[in-house]
């Protein structure tokens, strides 16, 4: 049955004002079968969030495993009734008129009793809908609106009073109802009591565990045991006679339905159950009759009715077959109802397979409808507007992208028509890749490359001579190529013959010495200088002298190497060789020109990391003009 749960808080003044309306709602709906409960949201915060509520007081409806939030601003009985009516399963009740009354009543082959509600109004009362929901698995409900003109035959056929509510219940015998009640206002208790007493057919099918529990309830006490006479058949028209015969036997039975019930079962549907009670039967169990006594949910005792078979092929007369079978059944039941008698066999069985379980596709459709109802119930106007805004934005982006692609394609077609674009989509005039320009350091370019550099800019210069320039420029170009896009760098090369005096003065300032240096030009080949014109310092790469933490000592060694001549052993004596930590004999004697720049790439990495030594000077020397 449906539950209505009210969420409140001790300090919620709106909740206090709704107490009277909630009590009135309980007085109206509780007699109809609606259950009520209240929850303090402060103590059950997790339940409050799970229910989907955002504010207090909050009202939710729990129905068929789903919860629905009541979002009306006012709490009135009529609005709550309409709210419950909308959330009940779709097409739970069939609308019946003169055209489909016979089809409705003859549909009992689905193993459901037919309940017909006739009322003088166009809208079905909530109490009838709730009863239909409660018994939906065993009773199929139909509604006749007496005010309509298409139900005259129904009123005449069943002698219906036009101004009263009437309930008619039908089993397999549709000529007349097995139960009826007619009142101006049928109480819910009376309604449910009549339906509950007649919720099974005269010969129901054991199609689920729920029906087995209702027809043959478990009873362990021997004096109060309840017997169930079951016919084993198959779902075929050939066995309709056997089922009809047992139905007539059940109708004429003198035993109380509280003690003995009749039913049938499909062998192919409930094969596990049939195999469990196979002891004591013949090989062919079809159209055989067995009497069951359920001791508990899984333990049953049973007895086969011997010499009783409803197979018409074995008997020349159907009447004789029915009478003989009835006698055998009555004799067996009378014997088994005695307290001293025990059933011959027992077995442990599993639950019956639910033959009414919906298929995969049907479940998917129900889930889709359920999701739709949930979204309609939970999504508010602002959520819809936000979703529409998002969808509109996405659609606009796709539209703009489509228009841009369209214009790009049109432009490409135009260029192809003019011959400015090749058929494969590439432009005929190939774009030149970014090149690395190497400037030669001369007097006219000296200011632009070094003296007048902007702050943060540096120039990297390779020192060569005429003989080594063709060999050294390619590896230098390769080493500095990764930095070609750096706009703070310029690259160049200098012939040592043209800038010897400038280079000598640069080294002298780096050493802080006052003496003039006479440098051997050949020893300078392969040196790389990184010059910062604005901050007046330079860094030096030399193949024979790697970077050390003692920059001054390194400069002294480099200068000694540069000024040394084969024919002048005294040159460089003033550099104080005794202070050198390493012997000149340990330095490599021979280094080919092609290997002078092997370590340049690593040195450039250190340069841009800032780990190379910087030699500061007072001013930039003049570059010779000749």
From TrEMBL:
Top-level lineage group: Eukaryota
Domain Thioredoxin as annotated: residue spans: 3-85
Record field: transmembrane: 384-408
Keywords: Membrane, Transmembrane, Transmembrane helix
Pfam families tied to this protein: Thioredoxin (PF00085)
Family matches, as PANTHER family: DNAJ HOMOLOG SUBFAMILY C MEMBER 16
Name the UniProt record assigns to this protein: Thioredoxin
Organism: Musca domestica
